[in-house]
Predict the structure of Olfactory receptor.
Amino acid sequence: MENQTILNMLVLSGLSDLPSLQLPLFLVFLLVYLMTLTGNLLIVLLICTDSHLQTPMYFFLGTLACLDMGCSSVTIPRMLFDFHTQKRLISIPACITQIYFIVFFVSSEISLLAVMSYDRYVAICRPLHYTQIMHWKTCILLVLGVLIFSMLYSLVHVLLLLKLTFCRLTPLQSFFCDLPQLVLVSCSDTSINVLLIHILAILVGGGIFALTFCPYIIILNTIMKMSKAMRSKAFSTCSSHLTVVFIFYGTCFFSYFHPKVKEITAVDKVSSVFYTALTPLVNPLIYSLRNKIIKISLKRVVRRLIQI
C-alpha cells in the first residue's frame, strides 16, 4: 500500500463506448425513465383516489410501484448523465451511496414480493379470515418491517465498503456501481466483504426466495380443489404477481449466479438493464393489463377527465 496511489474517483464502463450510440441510448433511456415514472405514479394515484382499490393487495401494489420508481431513479438518471457528458466518472462516496440505495430498493422489492405471496395465500386459502388477518395495522407493520430490514441489510454492506481503499484504475464493468464489482477493484483485503456477500445472499436471499414460493405450493393445492369458475378467478389474482416474481428473480439470478460471473459481457449488461430499468417499467403494465379492477378504475378516471 505504500507505493500505491489511493483513488477518489472510479470509472464506469457504461453500456457502449461508441460515440454514435450515446445520443440514441440517451433518448431511449430517457423515454424508459419517463414511462416508468408515469406508469408507477399512475398506479399509486389510482390506488390513493379509488376506494375500490384501497385493500391490502393494492396497498402492497402501490408500495411496489413506489419501490420501482426509487430503483429506477437510483440508476437511470446517473446513466443519462454519463451519456450526456461521456466521462463516466463517479466519486467513491457517490458510488457507495448508489450501492446503498440499489441494495435497499432491490432487497425491499424481493421482500415485498414475499409479503405479497403471503397476502395471496391468506386471500385464497383462508378467505373467511382475510379481513381479520390482513387488516391495515398488519399491512403497515409488514411494509415497515420490509423497509427497516432492507435499510439494515444495505447498511451492513456499506459499512464494510467504507473500510476499503481503491488504487486500481480498472473500470467497473457496468453502467452503475455494483456491489460485487466494486469489491473486485479494491486494493484492500476484501475476503470479509466477499464472504459476507455470499453468506447473506444464501441466507437472506434463499430465505426470502422460500417465503415467496412456498405459499404457492399450498395455493396451487387449494386452487385445484375449487370449481372451474373460482379456479380461473384465483389464477387471475396470482398470475400478475407470479409474472413479476419470475421476471425479477430471473434477471437477478442470471446477472449474479451464472457460471461466468467474473467475465462481464454485453449479455450481462443487458440483464442488468432488465432488473434495474426495464422491470420497474413493465411491472405497472403487467398489473394494469392483467387486472380488471385497475382497468375499470383507469377508465373511470379517463371518463372524469373527458367530462372536465
Summary: Residues 247 and 305 are 34 Å apart (CA to CA). The first helix runs from residue 19 to 49. The chain is about 75% helix and 0% strand.
